[in-house]
Design a protein that fits this description.
mainly beta
Length: 115
Amino acid sequence: QVQLVESGGGLVQAGDSLRLSCAVSGRTVRSYNWGWFRQAPGKEREFVGSITLSTTYYADSVKGRFTISRDNFKNTMYLQMNSLKPEDTAVYYCASGADSRWDYWGQGTQVTVSS
């Protein structure tokens, strides 16, 4: 059974940094596609970024501020978030999939950025 568990969210001020973790069991982070999504109150879930075998992709809104990485030994994926803005406030989810489908999701972790 594949499980994804996010951690690292919290309350920070604008301009601060946070690193989110996505601990994975039942699937290796060296394979498949891995992504981060977020959902703000009253808004639809949106794509933040993803990492495939060799490439990372980012939404324009986070490009240059957020970085996705993975630790194959710890079987964990990360989202390093720098220069946080109040509009980054959301519940952040990690996901795993193949091709164009995301078939496993974590439970989410809250990130709140105060101005």
